Input
Amino acid sequence: METHVKRTLNTKRFITVIILFLLAVLGVYRIFRPGVVKTVTMEAGSSMVDVKEFLRDRNAEGSFVTNVQQIDINQPGSYEMIIQIGNKQHTSQLKIVDSVPPSGTAVDVMVLKGEELEASSFVKDVSDASDVTVSFARKPSTRRAGSFKTAIQLEDSSKNKTILDAQLTVLEVKESVQAEAGQALNLTSYDFVDHGQWPVFLISNLEFLDVSKPTEHKVRLRINGKTVSSMIKVVDTTPPIAVVSDQEIYLDQTLEADDFVSDIVDVSDVKCSFLRNPNFKRKGSTELTIVLEDAYGNKSQYPANLTIKDDNDPPVFAGIRDIIIFEGQAISYKKGVSAEDAKDGPVEFEVNSKSVNNRKPGVYEIQYTAEDAAGNIAEETARVTVKKLEPTEEAVYSLADEILDKIMKPEMTKKEMAYEIYKYVKRNVSYTGSSNKDNVIEEAFRAIKYKAGDCFTYYALGEVLLTRAEIDNMMVTRVGGKTQHFWSLINVGEGWYHFDTSKHSEEIDSFMMTDKDLEYYTKRWGRNYFVYDKSKYPETAKQAATPVK
Output
């Protein structure tokens, strides 16, 4: 038992000695251990680490002896760091590492077929602590149009890598685009390229291009800042269209294929032909095929029937009507009358008018006769009524129309017609100094039948002829003076002018005069010659009328 107690005491003493030894070692270590850690690691591109990161005792105070401003914190590497703690300096290591891969934003790119590519075009906003190299994971080809997924690799100086996915669109500008001649040009900029929906702008204005006939037009486009060219080829692939009608002819007549065709629609000249030539010597009905071919080889075919028959049809008259004249008037039996034969065309005709006496009032019958080459005869009758010549409106207008037929031509303007009336009245009425100033019709009748009178007679015939020629006119009368005077105002589309067909004390041109002209002659001749009440009439033209050619 005594031995056991001794062993226990020895064990306790041993443990105590060990503990005291360890405490002594720890005390010595604390006195002589370094005040800083061996190494501090930081990520390139981050903020400079605080000095406390180097201190073993975070409660201690320390400072950098090393000039940290001269350390490139974006560049991976190891840097010796001297730290001041109290009155001692300690050495540690700052290790700058780059373990973060680069970042960036993928950019979709459009190029034209065959263009060279730069990987940097596919990325933007690249960010990293060090320099970054941009490359294709696998370089795409631009030899084929289309849309392609493209991998872009970002690699920094520490070999950190990032792969971005971008879209490559390869556009092919078409060498030419086809448009149909004669149709509206409904092309947009996108008709000139294949693939993709990138902005394509037309520089050329297509609105005024002539596409009525086959031709070529150069077109300029702007794509992604580049100006490129294409072509519009205007072609004709549309066959002609037309109206094709059945025809009927007489034996021994012939027709061309064109005679069956009307209203041809095509952008070029069209030739008509028979698919098989008809036999024009055989009577009856034959079904034909009419071929239409345009200048570009487009063809269309239409059916048509040809009927050939004997000529048993007489000519047909047109324009025959009953005639009314006044005694003494000449009769134009053939005026406005024609005879047309279906086979021979226009044919001559005769008028039997032996029974007509144009100087004796009454009703007479006349006969028209026409014969074609085959001996077919057409006959028609009409009546001629000869009325007693009296100063009625009907009679005077009929006589006036007869005068106008003689002095007028179809192509005349109203001004030229008015001038012919002016010359006719002046040349065909003599001055006697008397008239019936109460009745224009009776006085116009006197002028036509007896060709004499005074200024009212001249005026009356002028008014009737102007009215029948549908020329605007009105009567003007003198104000003051010892005698009356009458003339007209006329408007042939140039404004109102004075029109006087009377004889004067001296010969003047009184066709289409202005107020200024009237004032000149009134001053020259006196007697209030051309004085009139202007308030009763429309305003007259100020400018002298242009001469009649």
Remarks:
- The two ends are 171 Å apart (CA to CA).
- Residues 186 and 346 are 51 Å apart (CA to CA).
- The longest strand covers residues 161-173.
- The chain has a mean pLDDT of 90.
